[in-house]
Specification:
The protein has about 160 residues and is α/β, with parallel strands linked by helices. Helices cover about 20% and strands about 35% of the residues. It is built from three helices and eleven strands; from the N terminus they run βαββαβββαβββββ. The radius of gyration is 14 Å and the shape is globular. The protein binds manganese (II) ion (MN).
């Protein structure tokens, strides 16, 4: 089972459209968004997918983000999501507090801990936990739009970039 992991889209509609085009032939069951979506209208681009997200530090319009997400059948309600999917325990958090992300990883309660915020791609394993950060889809800080295709059967994280 494959899921798309993204973060820090920061209203880059062009990058989101390009991404969705690039993955249209993948069998993506869910999109996990680690926050910093910004405008509620951005969520509409993901229509047709199942999306679970968390708020980032720049997501100010929380009520409208929540309502827009709900109207699209998405879940975007909190700063943290504890997801159980395909027999895997997954923590989803923006990662504004680095120590909190590190504590989640060290807790060994999760198979996967997903965070964003730094805009830098990361992938490492501590004990039984795979820690991943898909970097920034917006591409604003690094000039590279990155994302991860995560296979929940094998726990392989495939880091990819927009062309
Ligand atoms: Mn952030």
């Amino acid at each position: 089972m494959k899921v798309l992991v993204i973060s820090d889209t920061h209203d880059n509609l062009f990058a989101i459209k390009k991404l969705l085009k690039q993955i249209e032939n993948e069998k993506i069951t869910y999109i996990f968004h680690a926050g910093d979506i910004i405008a509620p209208f951005t969520l509409k681009l993901f229509n047709g997918y199942k999306l679970i997200g968390v708020y980032g530090n720049n997501d100010g319009e929380r009520n409208l983000l929540r309502e827009t997400a709900k109207s699209l059948g998405f879940k975007l309600e909190k700063d943290f999501e504890n997801i159980e999917l395909n027999g895997r325990k997954i923590a989803l958090i923006h990662g504004t507090e680095k120590q909190l992300v590190e504590a989640l990883i060290k807790s060994q309660l999760y198979d996967v801990v997903i965070s964003g915020h730094t805009h830098v791609v990361e992938q490492y394993i501590i004990g039984k936990t795979l820690a991943i950060n898909p970097g920034e889809l917006c591409g604003y800080l690094t000039n590279k739009s990155s994302y991860i295709i995560l296979d929940l059967d094998t726990l392989q994280a495939d880091v990819r970039y927009l062309d």
